[in-house]
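I have been asked to look over a protein record a colleague put together. This is what I was given:
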Amino acid sequence: MNRRFLFLLGSSRADGNTELLARRAAEQLPGDVEQEWISLTEHPLPEFEDLRHDSDHVRPTQGAAALLLDATLAATDVVIASPLYWYSVSAPVKRYLDHWAGWLRTPGVDFKATMAGRTLWGVTALAHQELVVADPLIGTLRNSAAYLGMRFGGVLLGNGSKPGDVLRDTEALAHAKTFFAREAPLARFPYDTE
């Protein structure tokens, strides 16, 4: 399977620092790698309703849910580009991840088996000098990848609050040049010791 990167933009601001950093990293991908970019605010998912125990699941056939499910299943690499909002992912990204729970139970999708072995990456910009404050966001993505048996490429961190600030973060821009070139290891929960 040729590599296909799905970039999911989770900011409420177009061309924000997180998106700018993600685009810088994506510029380094080889020309034969397909890229699909979807703004989660332009294609909002409905509120997630947990129907695990009391409803039949049906594969979505239209709207944002169908678009995002199909794009996710077609991707070899999923890139969550979410600004750090209250020390975690943005609301649109959280809603997207919540929908994974429904897709796990959708007949004919076999979401967990399909996603196993694929790679989850993260890109985030934060307005804080201490990068450790992004640990909850990193944990959310790493643990989600581990649950599905995915690889986890880590999170590209940049600093910036006002639009364009991240373009002055020379360390982040340097890391962006090689971010997707690394071999991503199989994701593990923090308590896994093997």
